[in-house]
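Re-run requested by the PI after the first attempt was lost when the workstation crashed. Everything re-entered from the original request form. Ligand of interest: nicotinamide-adenine-dinucleotide.
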Amino acid sequence: MKVGMIGVGGMGATHNSAVKALSEKMDVEVTAIADMLPKYREEAAKLWPQAHIYTDGFALLREEVLDCVHICVPSYLHTELAVAAMEKGIHVLIEKPVALNEEDCRRLLETKARTGVRAMVGQVVRFFPEYELLKTAYESGKYGRLKSLVMQRLSQDVLWGYENWFQEEGKSGSVVLDLHIHDADFVRYMLGEPQGIQVQATAYENGMINQILTIYDYPGCFVSAEAVWDVTPALPFQPSYRAYFEDATITFHGRENPSVKIWKKDGAVEEPQLRQEEALAQCSSGINIQSLGSYYTEIAYFYDCLAKGLEPEKASLEEGVASVRLMLRELEAAHRALRG
Ligand SMILES: NC(=O)c1ccc[n+]([C@@H]2O[C@H](COP(=O)([O-])OP(=O)(O)OC[C@H]3O[C@@H](n4cnc5c(N)ncnc54)[C@H](O)[C@@H]3O)[C@@H](O)[C@H]2O)c1
């Protein structure tokens, strides 16, 4: 399978390494790479010395014959590149958020339906074992009914990024579409669409939302999710959740080891083993699969779907769009809350 990588900065470099690791098990090869910045495209090309190198992703799509492409550019460029790829019959893996407005959501869905390509969105939390464990616990009912779920995703101020794109709400969608979407998408994945939302927010001095706290209404339980781009670039990234079931509480702290604990009503505490032996392996190319985390699992799932001719239902374009639509409602509510 011939793969193109468009954008090999922060996230794209991880995708590129994951494909290299997967190429030891599957018939995949990155044959084309594009990035605006020489340092990133040169670094990415070290893994694929035969690949054709481009500056702009649109030129790559015009010139190359590919089976699939990874779109890991700043979020405001996702739709144009994804549509151009789909029009050429190329399957697409698009990083989250898949789009930043309703018009682009519609264009993506319409183009996919018309071209018949496969499209997956990088809603990677759906592939994290810590979150899969929670969903399995909820669906099995083994700890009784879920009474509440409190989620949090804290990040330092995002001062990296091509031409500082994170700092413009029109380009990143603010903390709401960029960071909060991870938890909101997982909530939708586990519990379906919320019956209602209540939103509180803060903003940077330029008016861009940098903190959102949403309460989602579900029958019989409530869910809250908070995401923060802090004022300081020093605060370490820390995702967490606490799920309160009738018979146990499950806690996850991304910076702790073990990260997940199950606190049973009888006082017992379980520390489940989450990573499989295989995930600890080192490839012959020197890439440590564990360091790729669930991005490796996510991309392996996408390629497996392509090989089998299946829709990547676990993180489909339709699901990615539904999460963007919820985020657009929350972003509007966040600005309304700030205006008072
Ligand atoms: N799934 C996750 O956990 C996760 C984490 C971080 C970022 N992301 C997403 O990944 C995407 C990229 O984020 P990032 O942190 O890597 O940003 P980044 O700014 O570090 O990298 C983006 C790269 O795209 C390149 N680029 C810009 N325009 C281009 C074009 N026309 N053609 C080719 N390359 C182009 C830039 O040169 C840059 O190197 C965003 O949508 C972001 O939301 C997802």
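Saved to the shared folder this time. The longest strand covers residues 146-155.
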